[in-house]
Amino acid sequence: MTLEGEIALVTGASRGIGKAVAVALAREGAEVIVNYVRNQEKAEQVCNEISANGGRAELLRFDVAKPDEVQAAIDGYAKSRKISILVNNAGITRDGLMLRYSPADWDDVIQTNLRGAFFVSQAVLKGMMKERKGSIILMSSVVGIGGNAGQAAYSAAKAGLLGLTRSMAKEFATRSIRVNAIAPGYIETDMTAELTGEQKEKILQAIPLRRVGKPEEIAQAAVYLASPLSSYMTGQVIVVDGGMSM
Questions:
Q1: Which residues are catalytic?
Q2: Which of 57, 120, 209, 246 could form a disulfide with 50 if both were Cys (CB 3.0 to 4.6 A apart)?
Q3: Domain assignments of the chain as residue spans, ordered by start
């Protein structure tokens, strides 16, 4: 159990990659804080699954796009316990052609995916600084590296996370706080489930392994970055995409 005694906060943990990360961290011994903003029922199911397998988990509701709400929730929790692992996973997508894209959709994507990660990290870092330890993981994407037509806002936000990762890594390394990112490719989630058969086939042709990834495969990368196994890694990006971006 490589994470025994650690407390991990996973944002957007009620489904998809966030859920898989929460379950995997708990399996390695971490106590997991399952963050959600709307679907309490699904978040409770994640906690129940963790508990059924001998792990420890609890809910913490806040909207990552609202800094005051983030700060209040984390400050309230930190009065009794210290968060030592943060996985900034919460994210949304509003795909659309750039010339038809609305300011409201742009703001929603940037506020949740990029701004949210900044303010959650800021809130958690206060405790990590005092303890002089911590691991922060930001969930970026291969489209943050290579871009994608019809995903200008999403790609911009995910690219921004890479810059945020490296900046935080340099700023907090002297306090033994490590900051790394994961860039998933196409993963079986609610987001990719909306693709048409033709779109999925086109994607598969671009992936050398000829399959989409599973949330659990991203979760294993998160476990590695959260654990002492990656103790000499900071400011790095692990790409998990079946070879698509080679």
A1: 154
A2: 57
A3: 7-240
Q: Could you tell me what percentage of the chain is helix, strand and coil, using 3-state DSSP and rounding each to the nearest 5?
A: 50, 15, 35
User: Which amino acid does the sequence have at 50?
Assistant: I
What is the residue whose two structure tokens read 């779109």? Answer: 199
Give the residue carrying structure tokens 């978040």.
43
pLDDT (0 to 100) of residue 191: 65
74 vs 228: CA distance, rounded Å = 24
- In sequence order, what are the residues at sequence separation of 6 or more whose Cβ sits closer than 8 angstroms to the Cβ of residue 240? 182, 183, 184, 185, 213, 217, 218, 221
* Close Cβ partners of 82 (under 8 Å, ≥ 6 residues apart): 7, 127, 128, 130, 131
Average pLDDT, the chain: 95
Q: 7-240 falls under which CATH superfamily? A: NAD(P)-binding Rossmann-like Domain (3.40.50.720)
Q: HSE (CB half, 13 Å, CA atoms) of 147?
A: 4
Q: 210 vs 110, 123, 175, 204, CA distance in Å?
A: 31, 40, 42, 5
Burial class (CB in 10 A: 0-12, 13-18, 19+), 221: buried
Which of 173, 174, 185, 160 is CA-nearest to residue 233?
A: 173
- Alpha-carbon gap, residue 212 to 202, rounded angstroms: 12
Residue-wise pLDDT for 195-213, tens only, equals 778 878 888 999 999 999 9
Per-residue pLDDT, 48: 98
Alpha carbons 137 and 54: distance in angstroms, whole number? 24
